[in-house]
Amino acid sequence: MNDTIAAISTALGVGAISIIRVSGKEAISIVNQLFKGKDLTKVNSHTIHYGHIINQEEIIDEVLVSVMKAPKTFTCEDVVEINCHGGITTTHKILELLLRNGARLAEPGEFTKRAFLNGRIDLVKAESVMDLINVKSEAARKLAIQGLEGHVSKIIRDLRQKLLEIIASIEVNIDYPEYEDIEVMTNEKLLPKIKDVKQDLKHIIDESESGQIIKEGIKTIIVGRPNVGKSSLLNRLINENKAIVTEIEGTTRDTVEGTLMLDGIQLQIIDTAGIRETDNLVEKIGVDKSIQLMDEADLVLVVLNNNEELTSNDWEILDKTKDKTTIIVINKNDLPSKIDRTLLKDYPIVEISVTEDQGIDQLKNKIKEMFNLSKINQKDYNYLSNVRQISLAKNADKVLNEVIDGINQKMPIDMVEIDLKNAWEILGEIIGETYTDELLDQLFSQFCLGK
To answer: What value does the mean pLDDT of the chain take?
Structure first.
């Protein structure tokens, strides 16, 4: 934290502009050694200056340099951003000169990590920065902005404050039992207050399941026997001839992927190899991969051939999806039916004909209905947005359950306080009030280099 870091903040490649960011105590003086123009050590904060980056007497590039002095910067340190002409060679040359003159190459996410460690942002905001960079839908953008603006952090802080007030009441009773003007805090008085916090926390967790869908999308797997129309269905859903379609069984031997937007939510659709017994090694690898992907999917579309009776392979596939969110897609409904629908009464069914372009809209509507997509987009976006945050919230909820059970079993009030402090600290991990170095290293390593 005492050294000065530098990195390229824009994507590498040919473009109009590249930005190299420098942060630390020596940021201004290091850049000033390379800058031919105004003396950057004497300029006002948050100003932009025209000049050239030079190497001794050689002009490297014509640039605009932004100078921002601590503490009113992203990292709360002195920050300089060099706007140079885009291009790999020029950008790398300027970065090389910065490193040669005293800066250190930043680690992935180190600028944001410094912003967190210096109190500029909390962990929820830090993760929202990366979410905003990687968003793939308008809904995901709104979710990231809510985190970045601090609305989600406020919800967690409010819950922690409620717990803190309960803990403080208990401690007053334990430490100062002789005071007659304080409320005697009994388990019976604690219970409704703790239940109130738990109810608020449970609401956040339930709503955050929607947040996961908004951010990550719905991983959708198309499975079925060979030649039932899986690849044709993928092509029709994404309006692109991405998967090869033939009448030859086993044409699809590896996964083919595409995306579809439904009510602002992204479906990541994966067409898989037809599932059947085979002696072909390559096809068998594809079949095994199809089965593995079924376990990872949020939604499984099982495609059946309307013109054929259900086979043992069909039933094996259905058996593997019994614990998954599944839609039966009966394809080729323009042909005579040989499927007994009563055998499939436990599944939602959509009938389509890919060749006749029938039923595709009905399938999309069924997906919207099953995942409540229309209601998700009508809600606010104050959600916990990733697995880490949701997992911690669930851990805190579990501890509060144990507290309530303990109170019902007449647990001593000082033991109740210990569990409440545990829940308070777990919630603190969400926003980074409590953290480990290992957590920070793992979290910020996922960021891009210049962020």
So the answer is: 84
